[in-house]
Amino acid sequence: MTADGSAAPTIDADGVLADLDALAAATSGPDGARRVCWTPVWAAARDLLRERLAAIGINEVETDEAGNLWARLPGADRSAPALALGSHLDSVPAGGPLDGALGVMAALGVLRAWAADPEGRVPPRDLVLIDFADEEGSRFGRSLFGSSALAGTLDPAALADLTDAEGEPIGPVLAAAGVELEGAPRANARLGSIGSYIELHIEQGPVLEAEGESCSAVSGCAGVERFRLDLTGQASHAGTTPMIQRRDAGLAAAEIGLAVERIARENGGVGTTGSLELEPGVITAVAGRAALGVDLRHPREPELAAMLAAVREAAGTIAAGRGCEIAEHPIWRIEPIPFDPELVRAAEAAAAAAGGRAAAIASGALHDAAEMARVVPTAMVFAASVRGISHAKEERSEERDLRAAIAAFGDLAGAALFGPPGMS
Ligand SMILES: [Zn+2]
Question: What is the pLDDT of residue 3?
């Protein structure tokens, strides 16, 4: 039974967990998952998904111009906009068994529940499973490739010069996988067939576990301001330059890092200075140059803007105080993306009914759902992560938490199918 009491078939969590095990067995090595997009192992993961789809009689399986895989279970009204469910099978090079894979296999579980319904019911409209291509961007550095193409925000020209770690250019690599980079935005033409989108994902953070919660709805994805601060002081001798006469770009960067930490805490966001390069970078010289990477995130736009303004002001003051020049170089930004309020409420009800957290939490990471939320009503469910570890072979969720999250996701699918018109 779904949260609103309508009768949709119940998702079989055993089947979802078995599919995840089979996927891990077929596509992981000693260092973890190896499903990097556009590689043979990723293709093998898709072959496994296709086998599973064929086994439940779903033969409408296609790949769009951006490499996204679409599998369609016909509903009663084929002209009505479909409910799309998905995530990504691709992983980082030494990834975990659940990131992305959980959402794809849970989507498969929803399709399977309908396809194998003993009462022979059909969903009121089409169900579409989407396995997005290259969510991780771990090979060419551009994440959300497939979902941004579908949402209409992919600019192929901005990607044309990208190469992987071996120097292989993106164009031929995608072409070998059947995707023409220039033509990828044409995937957007399929968007009209979709009415709404839901995704199950692991939290990849420690919040739910710390609260003792198994799962939750997700209110939206935090916005990101990512940039580099280049500080220029004066390189000089470690022994002969008096402390009072130094223009130490490294210490200016260090002090800015501490300011970023303070500002993030004061604004209820997160701020990270995870990269720092010093020149000349020797132990016997004052650093003449420093390049500090800054990543600020907040689920709400006003706070994110306030954090950015405060970091800029503090960085300017700190640099001046140490006699350094400062220049800011933008790297990437994305505004906070809230999910559909009505679908989020349905996800909250589903999570609560499954024994999870009653209120939604914000996602600090980006997901395919962030791109989808730009264009169709979207919601997500999170499963608690053990110790918040992800993008590593230690990535894990307790089985009872996975079962609760899968049940909540199945419930949300039912609510999205049978809920009020605004939700469909
Ligand atoms: Zn993911």
Answer: 44
Is the pLDDT at 6 greater than 70? The verdict is: no
Tell me the fold of 223-334.
Alpha-Beta Plaits (3.30.70)
CA of 333 to the centre of ligand 1 (A): 19
Residues 380 and 327: their CA atoms lie apart, in Å, by 38
CA atoms within 13 A on the CB side of 186: 10
- Whose CA is closest to 129, among 147, 152, 106? 106
Taking the centre of ligand 1 as the mean of its atom positions, its distance from the CA of residue 136, in whole angstroms, is 7
271-299, pLDDT tens digit by residue?
999 999 999 999 999 999 999 999 999 99
- Kindly give the distance from the C-alpha atom of residue 185 to the centroid of ligand 1, in angstroms, as a whole number: 21
pLDDT-derived band at 421, boundaries 50, 70, 90: very low
Q: What is the Å distance from ligand 1's center to 257 Cα?
A: 28
Classify domain 13-221+336-423 by CATH number: 3.40.630.10
* Domain ranges (residues) in the chain: 13-221+336-423, 223-334
pTM: 0.90
Query: Cα(321) to centroid of ligand 1, in Å?
Result: 42
Length in residues, the chain: 424
